[in-house]
Amino acid sequence: MTESEMLALARREGFEAGIVETGEIEFDPRFRTFCAENLCGKYGANYSCPPDCGTPEEMRARIVRYPRALVFRSEWPIADYQDQEAIRLAKREHNGGMLRAIDQMRAAGIEGTMAGASNCTLCARCKILDNAPCPFPERRFSCLSAYCVFVRKLAERCGMAYAADGGIAFFGLFAFAPSADSERA
Ligand code: SF4
Questions:
Q1: Strand, helix or coil at 171?
Q2: Which residue has the least CA distance to atom 8 on ligand 1?
Q3: For burial by CB atoms within 10 Å, which of 3, 41, 128, 140 has the most?
Q4: Band (31; pLDDT cuts 50, 70, 90)
């Protein structure tokens, strides 16, 4: 699968999409303090979230081990930033669209790791809460915040608007190793 085909796949799922070198992505470990404040209630309650997902350095290493990253952006007409239910549902849709596209890329032989717009929601109840192992360690995803990605700068790097006009924008990425036959987009 070529990078042009990967971009087309993301766009077919409704995303604005771009590709960056992972070496161009800015990380800031200080973002980890926001996770520790646990406003989302997932700190220590999901394998994909801190502290269980790994240190900021370990998370960064998981992305930069791949040379390229496909960046996803979606926009949602949510006027009220306090509408947590609308935001939760929109993030679920965003992550679902990413997973559909990435599953097809993986099926075509593209290896990589996904960072979404929220914690992993592959299971209705994360197995960490029952002291059971994660059944999908290869497919689970953490959010960009857990990776300490500086999302505003990532958007700028891709020529994407960070904010949405009259709504909310969500981001995600798929760090990947291009296949041998892939040309760069
Ligand atoms: S796949 Fe299930 S158990 Fe694993 S991190 Fe995601 S929600 Fe938790």
A1: strand
A2: 126
A3: 140
A4: very high
